[in-house]
Amino acid sequence: MHFLSEGVYGLLKFLESELINPDVGFHFSDYCSIKNTRGLHEHDFYEFFITYGGSVLHQVNGVKELLQEGTLVFIRPRDRHSYEELHHTDCYIMNVAFPARLMEDLFRFLGPSPFLERLINSAAPPQIVLPVSESLILKKRFHRLAWSAAYRTGSSDVPSLFKALITEVLFRQFSKQQKPELVLPDIPVWLTELQMTMKRKENFIEGLPALHSYCDKSPEYISRSIKRHLGVTPTEWINGFRLQYASKLLRSTDAEVIEVAMDSGFDNLSYFYRLFKSKFGQTPVQYRKSFKNLILPE
């Protein structure tokens, strides 16, 4: 990716002419880690991104906001933004960039529209949290389109198909725009260190006994602090680590679901199914199938 560095603040500027192939009409990127993204930047084109597999801190136009899994965000040319890990967690990001002229063509075609005006001129970038199942379907559709563009399968139709898909995303999804989630209060050092400790497999498998053994504070104080700073109970917090680990196993191995559940610290399969579907919007089997289909489009 080409960019220009500007000023003492380290702001990067990405250019449509260097990034987007005019014969295709868009640029598709899949970041498997926040560490692979660039720092604070802006660009002369539009883009949207979706978060997968975890939460992330998004700094945009001087404001820091918490994005949960499945958040779809629309970035305009004037927006300056970057990503930060949230308390040592990570996530995947799918990014789709497209030329400013596409939005200009849409304005001309549709005429004056309060919705489009809000989309372009709102102070904060529009965003919406999608159900995990819906975000995976959207990712699959863009994967297929990018695959067609890269391997020239039906490539003559790719620009038109992209315009239709991006129009659908803008009108179907962002018409349901939600307010960004506020950043939680600063976490004390001891809780951040405890969080790093509890992310180790041997500790989240053991659960509450490990939590209490690694902290010299009372169980009641720990519980209140986790609820205040993280918005969950200690059990929900630990189960979150277990579910993230389980989702990784489902994406990267062929282990049976019962093996995944046991290896992640769940000894009750029905309880595991219920928690997993509540968090990811799909059963473990459906979740695994969704990611398998993303690798080799049908």
From TrEMBL:
Under SMART domains, the record lists: HTH_ARAC
Q: Which organism is it from?
A: Paenibacillus swuensis
SUPFAM superfamilies to which the protein is assigned, alphabetical = Homeodomain-like (SSF46689), Regulatory protein AraC (SSF51215)
Q: Does the keyword Transcription apply?
A: yes
User: A single Pfam family, by name?
Assistant: HTH_18
UniProt cross-references to PROSITE patterns, sorted A to Z: HTH_ARAC_FAMILY_1, HTH_ARAC_FAMILY_2
**Domain of life the protein comes from:** Bacteria
GO molecular function ontology, one term from the record: DNA-binding transcription factor activity
UniProt KW Secreted keyword: no
Q: Which Gene3D superfamilies match?
A: Homeodomain-like, Jelly Rolls
InterPro entries documented for this protein: AraC-bd, Homeodomain-like_sf, HTH-like, HTH_AraC, HTH_AraC-typ_CS, RmlC-like_jellyroll, Tscrpt_reg_AraC-type_HTH
Q: Which UniProt keywords apply?
A: DNA-binding, Transcription, Transcription regulation
According to UniProt, the name of this protein is: HTH araC/xylS-type domain-containing protein
The residues covered by the HTH araC/xylS-type domain are 218-290
Q: Where is the signal peptide?
A: none
